[in-house]
Amino acid sequence: MATKQTIDFYFDLTSPYSYVAAEQIEAIAQAGNRTVNYKPTLLGFVFKSTGNSAPMMNPAKGKYSIKDFPRTARFYGLELNWPKQFPINATVASRAILKLKATQPEKVGDFVRALYRAYFVTGGDITSEEGVKAVADAMGLDGAALAAANNDEAIKEQMKAAVQESIDIGMFGAPYCVVDGEAFWGQDRLDQLRKWVVEGPF
Amino acid sequence: MATKQTIDFYFDLTSPYSYVAAEQIEAIAQAGNRTVNYKPTLLGFVFKSTGNSAPMMNPAKGKYSIKDFPRTARFYGLELNWPKQFPINATVASRAILKLKATQPEKVGDFVRALYRAYFVTGGDITSEEGVKAVADAMGLDGAALAAANNDEAIKEQMKAAVQESIDIGMFGAPYCVVDGEAFWGQDRLDQLRKWVVEGPF
Question: Which family, according to the similarity comment (chains A, B) (predicted)?
Fold first, then answer.
């Protein structure tokens, strides 16, 4: 293949394991001489379409997960403070991400991480236009323009297509990475993803 | 606490990720100055009780998992050849393990791994008394006695209690490790388990 393959990073901003993965994915891409294509999706639709469900939906798994989310974050040196509201509908923020991809693609990774930190670390609101604007403004982006993407018909259609794409490529949970056609589901498959991009297929 | 804590390793012989974990757990225990308490259980009952389900039960997750099982094995330098029959009912082999725990506890880990290799590497049958006897005999154990545990009323009761215990302690999938009261679900949490037993709680 002539062009350098990206790592397609499918995520939902409400996913704690995707937060942990988002903090690691750039270093992995760099080690493997790849770039990251940040692909926001909405797990509600993914779960509905695939029949899969979130860990928190099962009582026994939920009881475990509520301890495992922050422990996994700590394991990687990250903070995770359980949000007041969980899960959230990340549509507003996801549309803002799509808007930024079209205007300042080089800023997208940092914006995604800023949104995750607002939600999972500092207790911010990323479900409203005001909340998304605040996160964007704080990092020097045009928050008003990004928040306004929430009411942009073209962006709305792009978001629908993004969700459908995530389902079509086989996603059933988050994060879900695809590189060279190979899928890696879960933050806990990043070690395998790293080996893949650094050493090659195995 | 005065006595050295064990790592309680709950597993089902039909679980591919438990096979991979069984190949790693002794080194982790040794690094943390612990011993492993091998605790066979039966996921069918665990899933029924908790409402959780096997990865292969969901079409999208199953399609991914059938590739992820052997890739994960390869990642750790292990072979995994997809069995002709999957899943299996591991009752006969699990009762043999309980019998061996009572008679030659120091052999249990190797017997568990021999059963896993028979099932996931060399295509052996571990669902029948004959199959379990063959695996045991091949490693110099009294295969006939271990296979006969399948019809031992006391062992049958122990197996029921073992399954109930796995449910009671919160298990919802395999492998499920408990150390110092802390639970680690999945082969992909062994890194966290290692950190826990080597460096302490985090």
Answer: Belongs to the GST superfamily. NadH family.
